Amino acid sequence: MSPFVTFAQKTYWQQEVNYTIDVKLDDERHTLKATEQVEYVNHSPETLTFLYFHLWPNAYQDRSTAFAKQQLLNGEDEFHFAPQEARGSISGLDFKIDGQNVTWELDAQHPDIAKLTLNQPLYPGGRIIISTPFQVKLPDSFSRLGHVGQSYQISQWYPKPAVFDHEGWHPMPYLDQGEFYSEFGSFDVRITLPANYTVGATGELQNAAERAHGQPGTGDRRQKGVPGR
Questions:
Q1: Phi, then psi, of 180 in degrees rounded to 5
Q2: pLDDT digits over 21-71, tens only?
Q3: Are 71 and 63 in contact (CB under 8 A)?
Q4: Rounded to whole angstroms, how far apart are CA atoms 195 and 218?
Q5: What is the pTM of this model?
Q6: How many domains does the chain have?
Q7: 189 and 227 Cβ atoms separated by less than 8 Å
């Protein structure tokens, strides 16, 4: 008779992020002005002393980013030779955790990654509220994020925590060819834009009067779901 063999399995866990975002489009300056609040819940067995955040619009700021280098390597030189006014960035960041100022810095190699040093350790089961204002200068349409005139493709535009899983942190720079690895979460997003625009996005539209496609509205739309990834 063969003996029974049992294997201990590690308990699966996944970090929890819950977003509240209020954003307004300026279609003359091609900018987004926003505030963000993220509830971050540590479901891991590890005590965290810092968090990595993606600031992916900074991939469009200059020729030194991983995105810019990959495009040039692939023989696409439009961004490389683009004027500064055609490029993009994220600015105006003022991170706070539970209302308190927090030390943070951009990655030395990748300006689209930031490291936030926590004021107190975040123990397993603990939760914090991270908040910041921010502004995105939307680039011309070189890749996923951008605009052609007043037609906007808005993706990977808001600060978001990098994934922390059983392998550790995954702070990944933005690339033209490649997939994005982000934590799942809930989203409560208020979008303000001129009334003649139509938003195509996932989630559940909260404005009852605008649920019929193409129906004119007030210019303010509240949505629950993932805002442009």
A1: -105, 140
A2: 999 999 999 999 999 999 999 999 999 999 999 999 999 999 999 999 999
A3: no
A4: 6
A5: 0.86
A6: 1
A7: yes
